[in-house]
Amino acid sequence: MNTLINQFKADQAKDNNLAYGLTVCAAAAAVFGAALVSMAQGKAVAKAVEAIGKNPEAMSKIRSVMIIGLAIVETGSIYCFLIALMLIFS
């Protein structure tokens, strides 16, 4: 575990500051991508609730399609998180 923590310390990256900075920026961009996915999921849920409000009889169909769509979108967020971890700790 200490090797993972030591790889991320800034004082050990003195020889290659540019590469370290670019890696941190890329990890931040990946985390920003995950944040965008979360905002899109919130918008999707809001639209699904609005659709259920307009047509309550279709609630089960709307809910099942929404859950499948959110699961697919969530994979993008997980990939962004994994890329950020790989950039930070590699």
TrEMBL record:
Where, by residue number, does the polypeptide cross the bilayer? Answer: 18-37, 65-89
UniProt-listed Pfam families? ATP-synt_C
Q: Where in the cell is it found?
A: Cell membrane; Membrane
Q: Where is each V-ATPase proteolipid subunit C-like domain found?
A: 26-87
Sorted UniProt keywords? ATP synthesis, Cell membrane, CF(0), Hydrogen ion transport, Ion transport, Lipid-binding, Membrane, Transmembrane, Transmembrane helix, Transport
Xref: InterPro entries: ATP_synth_F0_csu, ATPase_proteolipid_c-like_dom, F/V-ATP_Csub_sf
Q: Does the keyword Cell division apply?
A: no
GO MF annotation terms: lipid binding; proton-transporting ATP synthase activity, rotational mechanism
Please report the record's description of how this protein sits within the membrane. Answer: Multi-pass membrane protein
Give the GO cellular component terms, alphabetically.
plasma membrane; proton-transporting ATP synthase complex; proton-transporting two-sector ATPase complex, proton-transporting domain
Residues of the site described as Reversibly protonated during proton transport? E74
What does the protein in this record do? F(1)F(0) ATP synthase produces ATP from ADP in the presence of a proton or sodium gradient. F-type ATPases consist of two structural domains, F(1) containing the extramembraneous catalytic core and F(0) containing the membrane proton channel, linked together by a central stalk and a peripheral stalk. During catalysis, ATP synthesis in the catalytic domain of F(1) is coupled via a rotary mechanism of the central stalk subunits to proton translocation. Key component of the F(0) channel; it plays a direct role in translocation across the membrane. A homomeric c-ring of between 10-14 subunits forms the central stalk rotor element with the F(1) delta and epsilon subunits.
Q: Which family does it belong to?
A: Belongs to the ATPase C chain family.
Name listed for the protein in its UniProt record: ATP synthase subunit c
